[in-house]
Design brief:
It is built from 4 helices and 6 strands; from the N terminus they run αββββαββαα. By secondary structure, the protein is α+β, with helices and mostly antiparallel strands. The protein folds into 2 domains: about 100 residues, Topoisomerase I, Chain A, domain 4 (Orthogonal Bundle), CATH 1.10.132; about 70 residues, Gyrase A, domain 2 (2-Layer Sandwich). The longest helix has about 40 residues. The radius of gyration is 22 Å and the shape is elongated. About 25% of the residues are buried.
Length: about 180
């Protein structure tokens, strides 16, 4: 019973860390990356669709993202969605594709990205702590229902805390890498 609680907590913590890392990937470091725009929602065919579901996204060079809609009729809708997304770049329509030229990052812009990375990391840490709290409550409930002994409850709480510390350390390590990446010119 206690191993199921621990396994569930570990799986949820891994998802929280992975989500934080995915959020980090949306912060660009001066190099264009398809992940920066693929989640932008576009109004297509009367519903909202992710950009990656209605266009090919490529990076022909480190400072450019190229979006080529599979349906030429979506060109204007994609352009509008990219403008509304406020990613700091103006889309340029060029025939049947849209180009997003990224300028060099100024020091102030880099510092804004670092602040955003810190905010995302803190959100990840908070999510991990919520999972820890849920697991601790589950351990107390198992003990209260006499499904595990007091020793097992303490061992489970210790294991959950160890997992929590590891997940938070992972987030902090990736934050340090992302911060170094963002501040490198």
């Amino acid at each position: 019973m206690s191993t199921a609680t621990l396994a569930d907590a570990n799986a949820r913590m891994k998802k929280a860390v992975d989500h934080t890392l995915h959020e980090f990937s949306t912060l660009h470091t001066g190099k264009a990356s398809p992940s920066m725009v693929e989640g932008i929602m576009v109004e297509a065919y009367g519903s909202m669709m992710a950009l990656k579901g209605c266009a090919a996204i490529t990076t022909p060079d480190p400072r450019m993202i190229q979006v080529q809609p599979w349906d030429k009729g979506l060109l204007r809708a994609i352009e509008k969605a990219l403008q509304m997304a406020n990613i700091g770049v103006n889309p340029v329509v060029d025939g049947n594709l849209i180009r997003l030229p990224f300028p060099d990052l100024s020091r102030e812009r880099r510092q804004e990205f670092v602040k955003t990375a810190h905010r995302l990391a803190e959100e990840g840490r908070v999510a991990v702590r919520h999972i820890r709290r849920d697991a601790m409550e589950a351990a107390k409930k198992l003990k209260k229902d006499n499904k595990i002994s007091e020793d097992e409850e303490k061992r489970l709480e210790k294991d959950v805390q160890t997992s929590t510390d590891k997940a938070i350390k992972d987030i902090d390590t990736h934050l340090a890498h992302k911060e170094k990446d963002l501040m490198t010119v």
